[in-house]
Amino acid sequence: MTSEASWIRVTAIVRPQRMDQVCDGLAELGVGGVTVSDVEGVGQQRGYSTLRSGAWYQSASHPKVQIETIIAVEDADQVLALITSNAATGEMGDGKIWLEPILRVVSIRAEEGG
């Protein structure tokens, strides 16, 4: 096994209302699969207050969606550009994207991998 990664895990934290745009765009690029999780976080926005059922509700965090996928290294720039353009509103709280090298991917069902 070489120490150089040929795969990258892309993790994007985006606004929930932008999830479909991001996932649809990834599918159009041919990205084979994504994992989507509901998450909450605190960034520069900090918390928020809202009126619910006549009472003020305060939250220290904002609901977000975490989208993860594994792609080939050579597709990274195209995937980053797609996520950025589909997730951006131009306002604080649009999210973050990070990439991590993956040294090996193994299919459990097929018991094969690189």
- Helical proportion, percent range: 10-25%
Poorly predicted regions are none
Number of helices: 2
Number of domains: 1
| SS-based class | alpha+beta
Extended strand count: 8
Distance between the amino and carboxyl termini: 8 Å
Percentage of residues in strands: 35-45%
Q: Roughly what is the average pLDDT, rounded to an integer?
A: 87
Strand order of the largest sheet: 2-5-1-6
Task: Give a short account of the largest sheet.
Answer: 4 strands, antiparallel
Report the top-level CATH class. Alpha Beta
Could you characterize the architecture of this molecule?
There is one protein chain. With 114 residues, the protein is an alpha+beta fold. It has one domain (7-105): Alpha-Beta Plaits (2-Layer Sandwich), CATH 3.30.70.120. It has helices at 19-29, 76-87; strands at 7-14, 35-41, 48-52, 55-59, 62-72, 95-102, 106-107, 112-113. The chain has a 4-stranded antiparallel beta sheet, with helices on one face. Strands 3-4 form a two-stranded antiparallel sheet. A two-stranded antiparallel ribbon has the order 7-8. Helix 1 (19-29) runs antiparallel to helix 2 (76-87). The radius of gyration is 17 Å and the shape is elongated.
